[in-house]
Amino acid sequence: MTNSPKTSAPADILGIGNAIVDVLARTEDDFLIANQLAKGSMRLIDEVEAERLYQAMGPATVISGGSAANTTVGVASLGGKASFIGKVRQDSLGKAFTHDIRAIGVGFDTAHAEEGPATARSFILVTPDGERTMNTYLGACQNLGPADIDPHTVQAAAVTYLEGYLWDPPAAKAAFRKAAELAHAAGRKVSITLSDSFCVDRYRDEFRALITDGTIDILLANEHELKSLYTTSDFDSAVAALRAEGPLTVVTRSEAGSIVIDGASITEVSAEPIERLVDTTGAGDLFAAGFLLGHVRGFDHTRAARLGAIAAAEIIQHIGARPEARLKDLASQSGLTIS
Amino acid sequence: MTNSPKTSAPADILGIGNAIVDVLARTEDDFLIANQLAKGSMRLIDEVEAERLYQAMGPATVISGGSAANTTVGVASLGGKASFIGKVRQDSLGKAFTHDIRAIGVGFDTAHAEEGPATARSFILVTPDGERTMNTYLGACQNLGPADIDPHTVQAAAVTYLEGYLWDPPAAKAAFRKAAELAHAAGRKVSITLSDSFCVDRYRDEFRALITDGTIDILLANEHELKSLYTTSDFDSAVAALRAEGPLTVVTRSEAGSIVIDGASITEVSAEPIERLVDTTGAGDLFAAGFLLGHVRGFDHTRAARLGAIAAAEIIQHIGARPEARLKDLASQSGLTIS
User: Fold this and answer.
1) In a designed cystine with B171, which of A115, A162, A310, B145 is the match (CB 3.0 to 4.6 A)?
2) Looking at the predicted structure, is the pLDDT value of residue A5 above 70?
3) Can you give the pTM of this predicted structure?
4) CB contact under 8 A, B319 and A322
5) How many CB atoms lie within 10 A of CB B177?
6) Cβ separation of B92 and A96 shorter than 8 Å?
7) What is the pLDDT of residues A85-114, one digit of tens each?
8) Is residue A146 within 8 Å of residue A175, measured between CB atoms?
């Protein structure tokens, strides 16, 4: 309905991440156990396992996804300007991903791969408690590299937001570093989400180095990821370790809300009430959309985290990680106007 | 999760219809007006219009659909045995359709087309009032013909259920007639849904002939379709005309519930209460699933129509025409046990 803006137009948020289409199915816990899947995690799978799992799983709903991509869609739905860099192949899922992200107004001009692996898909199993367990075939995402990082797009975005999952496909890490350097050189901010506690396990030292060397201005994490980062089971210890290192940090704690750590100040914000938890897929991504957009638009931490909570509350009440309602309207109804 | 039974195993319901994947997007009413779309209707579109509309519409959710196919999935979700005959092509959407219907336990063994038009898709625009407006590219459905009607599958089903939309692809009509003859020869029942008031407009005389010549044992229609069938704006006149012709008929009236017309007796049944109307796509299909399964399993008209209402109430509270909850459990909670 909305035309895609050029990604070189000024943006609040540029997201860089794996471009993925989600294939979501409801599942009983027994299925996770029988398939030895760690509930709540994301694991990487190859094409053979992707086919096996698809045949074994129930009827599916197909909705565009990808962590940072979901965040940019959230920003657009909230009334902000967003762009996205990520790699799909020129195939039917790649076409769907491109349509969906552009249709909500996010700029997306990364060249499609014309050969090589298919567009990435994540087989997401949603248990009756609303928890999601993700099985991701990275496919074409493995071809994202530094050449895909358009300097003008990075320079024009107030915040460049990167997903920790970018550490999985090898060439994407170099793209990540290039984007961070370009952003800082242009006086912009760099933000990262730690993505997943298993992802933190895989890249703990590198993620900690990104924090201590000043690459990260704004850190987003949930409490499990933060504990994993500092290899502690005690939340307060993890927070103390983080405060010593300094970036502005938002930690989400599901129904316990979120806390914003800004040097000496700590701000606690409640979760938004919901009617019914259906599917947590995208909760963190949408929280990030609200917080980062609020931050860029000059909201204080409480209001920015509340904007995040409103976006997250919408996404967990239906299947899939893309908003079904116009988040800008939901925010306005709560007195948070994006002008 | 469930293995596909052979379609030659005994079934409660065999559905024969257009095998379609739905591409659903939320839309404002303005978009329907600008595109001259008649709200609530189904129109047929060609490949060029399909591409144009897709580019113009918002972010989409892809879920298997097809009227009679949705009904068979509803029957399986309610705990009944169902099979389906319909034509997809061997392409990515055809694979998704096949996976989804088999994964819930519906038998589906119709040979895939290996060439010719792509698997059918319906671009469904859902307005804020929950009403859906469908734009269907029939594609591979046009290749369904009498050769696809397996006699054993028809003979083994208590009810063969056919969608009125089968009158649109030319060869499917012959398949429809073959199936009806096989069913009656085996002492089975034949049921039809009138599908859509515009569909009734296109084939009124033929549909009336099917009723008067005894082809149809059980008729499903909504009030608009019934009025269109007898070209009257008065519901009571339409009911009177129908009673003179005789088949067991269920007429759905949205939130006003349904009425079952069985010769001299008329049974009125309320709609089930819902929390939130999200998307009416599949409401009639799921009502048919509950009513027909209840009927086959010996429920009286009130209980059969209530089973239909429970299935319809689930489907209209989320996007798409395939159940997200196990309908058998919802029915049990209302005291309607399928044994």
Assistant:
1) B145
2) no
3) 0.93
4) no
5) 16
6) no
7) 999 999 999 999 999 999 999 999 999 999
8) yes
- Residue A337: which residues within 8 A CB-CB, separation 6 or more? A331
Calculate what percentage of chain A has a pLDDT beyond 70: 97
Do B112 and B144 meet the contact criterion of CB atoms below 8 Å apart?
Answer: no
Supply the pLDDT for residue B225.
96
Comparing CA positions, the residue from B227, B220, B240, B229 lying closest to residue B304 is B220
Side-by-side strand order, sheet with B248-252: B107-108, B82-85, B11-16, B157-163, B189-193, B218-222, B248-252, B258-262, B265-269
pLDDT over threshold 90, residue A246: no
Q: Could you tell me which residues come within 8 angstroms of residue B231 by beta carbon, excluding any fewer than 6 positions away?
A: B204
Q: What is the rounded distance in angstroms from the CA atom of residue B248 to the CA atom of residue A267?
A: 65
User: pLDDT tens digits for B126-135?
Assistant: 999 999 999 9
Taking CA B203 as the corner, what is the angle to CA B198 and CA B206, rounded to the nearest 5 degrees? 150
A240-245: long-range pairs with CB below 8 Å, 24+ = A242/A211, A245/A211, A245/A212
How many Cα atoms occupy the beta-carbon half-sphere of A254 within 13 Å?
A: 10
Show Cβ contacts of residue B181 under 8 Å, excluding neighbours closer than 6 positions: none
Q: According to the model, what pLDDT value does residue A60 have?
A: 98
A59/B322 CB distance under 8 A: yes
Longest CA–CA separation in chain B, Å: 52
Nearest to B17 by CA among B101, B99, B77, B80: B101
Phi, psi of A262 (to 5 degrees): -130, 90
B132 Cα distance to chain centroid: 15
Can you tell me whether residue B156 is helix, strand or coil? coil
pLDDT tens for B142-177 read: 999 999 999 999 999 999 999 999 999 889 999 999
Element spanning B41, H or E: none
Beta-carbon contacts of residue B250 (< 8 Å; ≥ 6 apart): B218, B219, B220, B221, B258, B259, B260, B261, B287, B291, B305, B308
**For chain B, which domains are there?**
11-333 (3.40.1190.20)
Distance CA B271, CA B296 (A): 21
Q: Which residues of B touch A (CB under 8 A)?
A: 1, 25-28, 31, 54-64, 73, 92-93, 96, 99-101, 103-104, 275, 278, 318-320, 322, 324
Model confidence pLDDT, tens digit, residues A37-67? 999 999 999 999 999 999 999 999 999 999 9
Q: Is B12 helix (H, G, I), strand (E, B) or coil?
A: strand
Residues of A in contact with B82 (CB under 8 A): none
Residue among B262, B255, B269, B254 at smallest CA distance from B304:
B269
